[in-house]
Write a structure and sequence with these properties.
The protein contains nine helices and eleven strands. The protein has 350 residues and is α+β, with helices and mostly antiparallel strands.
Length: 350
């Protein structure tokens, strides 16, 4: 953190010099914005080190464990906030997200695992104070999910949730296994930033919109009305559906939100392919073939393969305590990006 502090102070000094220069209005706006951001970073880092000093003082006082514990929690939250501000701007910054969970290999057991992941993410979102809504779902015979799409809305939801993209693997004895053998199944998680109308233009002539009767909760009402919406984007063949609302109009609006996100992701992937020679090696690339995490029930173990992190508290993670993992991914990510830019050589572990 000390090296980051020095870099932030140097950047602030450079921006202050630029503010004194005769810049054009558009340049002045950009420099002012950057200055404000790094000033905030500088203040947060100062607060971080002040808290560290305060902890050292409390250690000299007998019976101060509770106060030290409170300060340590503040430091952890402050560290995460600093890391979030340090992350370069990307398509997830200040965006809500759509989360798609699909059962992979493993049949019915994969669908049950997809349901476990859904529960994990809903609980994590609740702990963060984010709002969630299920936009579309396809349940399996045993109560799992073949596919489910949810919208997550809240501050920094995109910044945190983007690290969940990839293939999740579970190792356990399925409920359908009578012999007690451990099986390996997978589920795929895709995370798409919510895209505004101005970010992606969709020609209405390129759409085929169908209505059908919704299924699931809602009793007889949903069975009597064709409120569910299916939108097909003809040029790409992308199909999205939404049946979470009783109104056709509301379902159409939400389906269009998902479609914009999918088209934006498609354009991003095509651009990445053109730049394959400069492909980034940082975590969270979003490739659906990328195995990112294993949930091993017999060993009570969760392993994130991107940073070789192993946690022997499987139930806590499945209960939504992803702060055991995601902040460490964020820290690794920012360190790698800062190294890539030549800003730092090493970042001290905190």
């Amino acid at each position: 953190m000390e090296s980051i502090k020095n870099w932030v102070n140097e950047t602030l000094s450079e921006l202050e010099k630029k503010l004194m220069e005769n810049l054009e209005l558009k340049d002045m706006i950009k420099v002012s914005s950057d200055f404000t951001k790094y000033k905030e970073l500088s203040e947060l880092i100062d607060e971080y080190f002040n808290l560290l000093d305060e902890i050292e003082l409390w250690k000299e006082e007998p019976g101060s464990e509770d106060e030290i514990s409170k300060l340590e929690k503040k430091i952890e939250g402050l560290s995460n906030e600093i890391l979030t501000l340090l992350l370069p701007d990307d398509e997830f910054r200040d965006r809500n997200v759509f989360l798609e969970i699909r059962a992979g290999t493993g049949g019915e057991e994969a669908a049950l695992f997809a349901g476990d992941l859904l529960r994990m993410y809903l609980r994590y979102a609740e702990s963060k104070g984010w709002d969630t809504e299920i936009l579309d779902e396809s349940k399996s015979d045993l109560g799992g999910y073949k596919e489910v799409v949810i919208r997550i809305k809240g501050k920094n939801s995109g910044t945190y949730m983007k690290y969940e993209r990839g293939v999740h693997r579970v190792q356990r004895v399925p409920v359908t296994e009578s012999g007690g053998r451990i099986h390996t199944s997978t589920a795929t998680v895709a995370v798409l930033p919510e895209i505004k109308d101005v970010d992606v233009y969709i020609d209405p002539k390129d759409l085929r919109i169908d209505t059908y009767r919704a299924s699931g909760a809602g009793g007889q009402y949903v069975n009597k009305t064709e409120s569910a919406i299916r939108i097909t984007h003809i040029p790409t063949g992308i199909v999205v559906t939404c049946q979470s609302e009783r109104s056709q109009l509301q379902n159409k609006e939400r389906a269009m939100m998902v479609l914009r996100a999918k088209l934006y992701e498609l354009a991003r992937r095509e651009q990445e392919e053109k730049m394959s020679s400069e492909r980034k090696s940082q975590i969270g690339s979003g490739e659906r073939s990328e195995k990112i995490r294993t949930y091993n029930f017999p060993q009570n173990r969760v392993t994130d393969h991107r940073i070789n992190l192993t946690i022997y508290n499987l139930q806590a993670v499945l209960d939504g305590n992803l702060d055991l993992i995601i902040p460490k991914l964020m820290q690794y990510d920012i360190e790698e990006q800062l190294r890539g830019l030549g800003i730092i050589q090493t970042v001290e572990g905190e």
